Amino acid sequence: MNCIEKEFEEVELKHTGLSMVVNFSGGYIISGYIGFCMSIKGLDIKDYFNLLIDVPKNYPDVLPTAKEVNRRIPQYFHRNEDLNLCLEVPIE
């Protein structure tokens, strides 16, 4: 078992709506639903998003990319120039 598979086991315990498969290039595709629940000023917010995360074979040297499949997250909200979701600040 490699580091990606170990890390995914931990993630899967909390987010049971996700699954992972090996892609054609030897990396991984993580996909499925991830939900959250939070309270702001007494207002409870519960929602979920359908995600597709492409983890390249040469991770962590190359960062994964993530997309929200159902286009519920606005195009201008916290995205990289290629419109993938922002996962981290640019590496210097």
Task: Summarize the entry for a quick read.
Helix content is 13%, strand content 38%. It has 92 residues and is mainly beta.
Structure description:
The chain has 92 residues and is mainly beta. The protein is 13% helix and 38% strand. The protein has 1 helix and 4 strands, in the order H-E-E-E-E. It has one helix at 3-14; strands at residues 18-22, 28-40, 43-55, 65-68. It has a 4-stranded antiparallel sheet with strand order 1-2-3-4, covered by helices on one side. Strand 2 and strand 3 (43-55) form a beta hairpin. The mean pLDDT is 89.
The stretches of 5 or more residues where confidence is low (pLDDT under 50) are none
Write down the overall geometry: globular
Q: Compute the gyration radius: what is it?
A: 15 Å
Q: What's the pLDDT, averaged over the residues? A: 89
- Main beta sheet, described? 4 strands, antiparallel
DSSP E strands, number: 4
**Helix fraction bin:** 10-25%
Order of strands, main sheet, comes to 1-2-3-4
Distance between the termini: 30 Å
Name the descriptors.
92 residues; mainly beta; four-stranded antiparallel β-sheet; 4 strands; 13% helix; 38% strand; globular
Q: How is the topology of this model organized?
A:
Blueprint: H1 3-14, E1 18-22, E2 28-40, E3 43-55, E4 65-68
Antiparallel strand pairs: 1-2, 2-3, 3-4
